[in-house]
Design a protein that fits this description.
mainly beta; four-stranded antiparallel sheet
Length: about 70
């Protein structure tokens, strides 16, 4: 979001299935936003870095398909 609350981009990390709600916090590192998205749905979760300006995935590491 920008300083006026306008959403600038949105990126899907995984096919997240809401079970108990999404609770991870993003971390800013340089030009990247680091996010963790765990899911009990198909495919498991991932930890990835997004470009702060565009939301493009810079890198992504898949996590196990079983829920944590």
């Amino acid at each position: 979001m920008d300083l006026n609350g306008k959403q600038l981009w949105q990126t899907q990390i995984t096919h997240f299935v809401i079970h108990q709600g999404f609770g991870s916090s993003p971390a800013i590192w340089g030009d990247l936003v680091i996010v963790a998205a765990d899911s009990k749905g198909d495919g498991g979760g991932a930890v990835c870095a997004l470009d702060r300006k565009t939301g493009a995935i810079a890198w992504k590491v898949a996590r196990a398909a079983k829920p944590n």
